[in-house]
Amino acid sequence: MRLHLAGALDIIEISLRGTIAYRFAMEHGSHGHLNPDNYTFKDNYKGDWKIVPIWAAIEVIPFGTLSVFLASIKSNEDKKAISHFYKLPALHLLPSITRHLAYTRNLCAHHSRLWNRHMRVPFTIPKFIMKQHCIKDENNQIIGDKKLYPTLLICDYLLKTIDPESQWSKKLNRLFAKHPHIDFQAMGFPTKREYASLSNPPINPYSEK
Q1: pTM for this structure?
Q2: For the chain, is the Cβ count within 10 Å smaller at the N or the C terminus?
Q3: How far apart are CA 102 and CA 69, in angstroms?
Q4: Cα of 43 vs its chain's centroid, Å
Q5: How many Cβ atoms sit within 10 Å of the Cβ of residue 75?
Q6: Under a CB-based contact definition with an 8 Å cutoff, are residues 79 and 94 in contact?
Q7: Own/partner pairs for 36-42, CB < 8 Å, 24+ apart?
Q8: Hey, how many other C-beta atoms are within 10 angstroms of the C-beta on 185?
Q9: Mean pLDDT of all residues in 121-130
Q10: Would the CA dihedral through 71, 81, 199, 115 be positive or negative?
Q11: Calpha distance 34→49 (Å, rounded)
C-alpha cells in the first residue's frame, strides 16, 4: 500500500508544482517569487531563492518547502485561483492538505509504517468529504481523523480532480480485497456496518472488487 500511495502523491505533487508556478508566473512575472512583498512571511523567503524563473525554482524545492511557500502567498486571489483548480471552496484547505501530504510522502519515502499510524501532521478535512465519507462519534468528532483513511480519501479526490478517469481508488480496493483479514479500523476506516450508511464511498476495504 505504501507504494500505491507514493504513486498517488507523485502525481499530486507534480500537479501542485505546475499549478502554483503557472499562477505565480502569470500574476507576478517569471521572477515574482524574488519579491518578498508577495509573501505573508517575508523573512522566510528573502534571499533564499536562486535567480531563476519561478517554474525552475518550484521544480527543485522539496515538497515540504512547497507547502510552506503555498501557505505564505500573500494574495488571496492567488490562493483562490490555485484552490479553484482543485475545486476546494475555502482558502485554508489546500495549504493544510499540502502540508499533510508532504508529511505523508516522507513516511512513504522512508519506508515508515502506515497501518495503525497516528498521523502527526493532520489536515483540515473538507466538509463535503466529511459529509459523504466520514463517520462521527456521539460527540460529533470524526472517527479516525488522525489515521490513514482521510489521507486516502483526499488523495482519491485530488487524483480525480486532476484526472477524472483516475482508477486509483479501484486499484486500492482490489489491493484491500487481497488482504481481507487486515484490521482496517486501525487505519481509521469505518466498520463494515457503518459503511452501509455512507454515500457511495470510493474507497471500501470490504468491497469484493
Answers
A1: 0.90
A2: C
A3: 12
A4: 26
A5: 15
A6: yes
A7: 37/74, 38/73, 38/74, 38/75, 39/72, 39/73, 39/74, 40/71, 40/72, 40/73, 40/74, 41/72
A8: 17
A9: 92
A10: negative
A11: 7
| Residue 50, pLDDT above cutoff 80 | no
Report the C-alpha gap between 103 and 62 in whole angstroms: 11
Q: Kindly state the percentage of the chain with pLDDT values over 90.
A: 56
Mean pLDDT of 33-52: 67
**Strand partners of residue 136:** 142
In the structure grid, which three cell numbers stand for residue 145, read together? Answer: 481523523
Length of the chain: 209
Give the cell for residue 48: 533564499
C-beta of residue 151 within 8 angstroms of C-beta of residue 189: no
3-state secondary structure the chain: CHHHHHHHHHHHHHHHHHHHHHHHHHHHCCCHHHCHHHECCHHHCCCCCCCCCHHHHHHHCCHHHHHHHHHHECCHHHHHHHHHHCCCCCCCHHHHHHHHHHHHHHHHHCCCCCCCCCCCCCCCCCHHHHHHHCCECCCCCECCCCCHHHHHHHHHHHHHHHCCCCCHHHHHHHHHHCCCCCCHHHHCCCCHHHHCCCCCCCCCCCCCC
